[in-house]
């Protein structure tokens, strides 16, 4: 079985911590801020609410584009390897 090195564990902990912070920020932004008065100083730490929809949509589209392009690249690579085997 593969043992994770200290660097792997550190990167994993960093990604988990980043995800938790991002989740907490987004949750406060979407769920808690509508109930806090707009003059409250906490609103200066958050983007306008329109971005709460735009940012996840753009991130999802970029993820789909990346996954689709990587699948096409893999397909092209497999086809070229099959053609090389047929020709040789």
Report what the structure shows:
0% of the residues are buried. The chain has 88 residues and is mostly helical. 73% of the residues lie in helices and 0% in strands. The model has no long low-confidence stretch (mean pLDDT 92). It folds into two domains: 1-46, no CATH class; 49-88. The protein is built from two helices and no strands. It has helices at 6-32, 51-87. The chain is elongated, with a radius of gyration of 22 Å. The longest helix has 37 residues, at 51-87. Pfam families: DPM2 (PF07297). Keywords: Endoplasmic reticulum, Membrane, Transmembrane, Transmembrane helix. Belongs to the DPM2 family. This is Dolichol phosphate-mannose biosynthesis regulatory protein. It is a multi-pass membrane protein.
